[in-house]
Request: fold
Amino acid sequence: MSLLELQGVDAFYGESHILRDVTLGVEEGEVCSLLGRNGAGKTTTLRSISGARPPEVRDGRIVFKEEDITAMSPEDISARGLSLVPEERRVFPNLTVAENLHLAEVSENRSNTVGRSLGQVQVEHVGMTTEEVYDEFERLRERKSQKAGTLSGGEQQMLAIARALKQNTDLLLLDEPYEGLAPQIIADVEDAIRRISDSGTTILLVEQNAIAAMDIADRCYVIDQGSIVFEGTAEKLRADDETRDRYLGV
Amino acid sequence: MSLLAETVTVLLNGLQQGAIYVLVAIGLSIILGTLKFVNFAHGALYLIGTYAGLLITLKITPTGGKLADWGYTTLGLGWGFLPALLIVPILVFVVGLAMERFVARPFYDRPDTDQILLTFGLAIVVQEVFKILFGGQSYNFARPGWASGQVGLPIVGTFPEWRLYIIGITATVVVLVYGLIEYTDFGLVVRAGTRDAEMVELLGIKLSRPYLMVFGVGAALAGVAGVVGGPLYAVNPNIGTEVLVPSFLVVVIGGVGSISGAVLGGILIGETLAVMVAIAPQWSQVGIYVLAAIVLLARPQGLLGAEEVAP
Reply:
């Protein structure tokens, strides 16, 4: 069974039917990419998986590590080893870089008022230590006392990814990590994603920038108007001119 | 008394008056900043704190209300002031937890007007319950014997010792709350949660418990204010409402969610009141509204207002 499976998921924003019978699977250890135009339903898919509401999942099942997580809260899903790096980074601009990173381990800390017991939950990949994160992202070490709101877009993206890696993560969901970044910075982020993947963490990457995403992905899905219209390897998608032209415009 | 001595006395009085408002306003401000909950029942917590403080500190004879009708001639424990200062914040903290769980939480997603109607109604209910039990008249909350005298100060000569204690206790409490918000995981989660609650939950952190704590801590501060402020004024069922309005002005002036703002706003309101009482007592209440209006015209978000809870 796949690490993550969406089985016939229908999701709604109010009465708007956004995802229509979406079925997809992410295998352990791979970089899987979900591609599509703006408004195709990519972010809605990631929000449905991570437990963020809205959208409301009215039909179908989301299964992570053979457990149905469809109706779980974001905290419970996160505790099971699924981390989301959301669109627009969502770092806390009022906190320093170090505080942003520390927040990622607060939930694991059972001795304070905000940590909680995770019970029998098993997560294979233990989160990085702060030192490991700083080794991976040197720029963050240099800026650790700086407020996150003062960082550049690329640095904020690094911080958002680093924050996710500090959690115990078996599946990393990346929502448009290249958005708004200069080409050189995109290359840096790509390198970081490759290193994370090489370390064995499974990645589901959602992107509008199809060329960059195909470079890095093992397998791709294409979504259009809330339905999956293509499934296959990155090579297969590269060779499929019609799909690329019709749904991705590249 | 020289003009300088008189001025310094007025300023010290203002600082003491402001200190009470600071204690009430910090709670109001962090609850509003974190939970976006407008709590008009915060004054009721002050009221509960004052009566609880009175009954722990002294033995009183009820002179009205149902308790007197039922034949109680003596009420209270008479344990003295220090036990009251320790017990009341804990007691009001627990009342605050109950208020969050059963009153506030079901209304978090409701409009501000619903929250105001609910909490204003609750404040009136609490006030009337105290009126029914203890009567509408005032009780004398005597200052503790060890702090009832005058203390010698340079320039001003003598100053009531109790008023200095209030300033000292408030300063200590402010430092503790500042430390809690700035240097603990709890404070970190609160600061992050006010900015982007969903992202905090996506990081695996359950916010309901820190939010409950925020409410409890805010309530405990109102309890402290009730105990230290009680001996300054006559204790009656209206004191909750009387302290609430200036405290809301403090929040507005200082900026919602800002602890430093609440301190600054409290000092400004206290000083304005003290100065106005000295030069034109009949205009003293008007003075604080004028101050609030000027601040709001110049800086609608308050002097130190931000979008999140900040030290």
Q: What stands out?
A: The interface with chain A takes residues 184-186, 188-189, 191-192, 195-196, 198-206, 209-210, 213, 306-308, 310 of chain B (CB under 8 Å). Chain B has one domain: 3-136+160-298.
